[in-house]
Design brief:
79 residues, alpha+beta, two-stranded antiparallel ribbon, 2 strands
């Protein structure tokens, strides 16, 4: 019902549509609760980076986004 932050997911089996089930997502505030908890857990363990999203993965994603923006010719104000 919302690709970025779904409230429900409905699953309909291909051969048994009568077995359709709807699952409700747990209540949340922003959709970033898991990320915040992962950061809290890392801090409490004395880690300087989160296992779920290590620094090298963050850098890789940012480089990918920079490459896409360059191909599109998109620049942020101040660049």
């Amino acid at each position: 019902d919302n690709i970025n932050n779904p409230l429900t997911i409905t699953v309909t089996p291909f051969r048994k549509p009568e077995e359709t089930k709807t699952y409700h997502a747990p209540e949340q505030i922003t959709g970033f609760e898991d990320e915040v908890q992962a950061a809290v857990d890392a801090i409490e363990r004395g880690q300087v980076e989160c296992e779920a999203m290590p620094h090298d993965e963050t850098v890789r994603i940012m480089q990918l986004m920079d490459d896409i923006r360059a191909k599109w010719g998109f620049k942020y104000p101040g660049e």
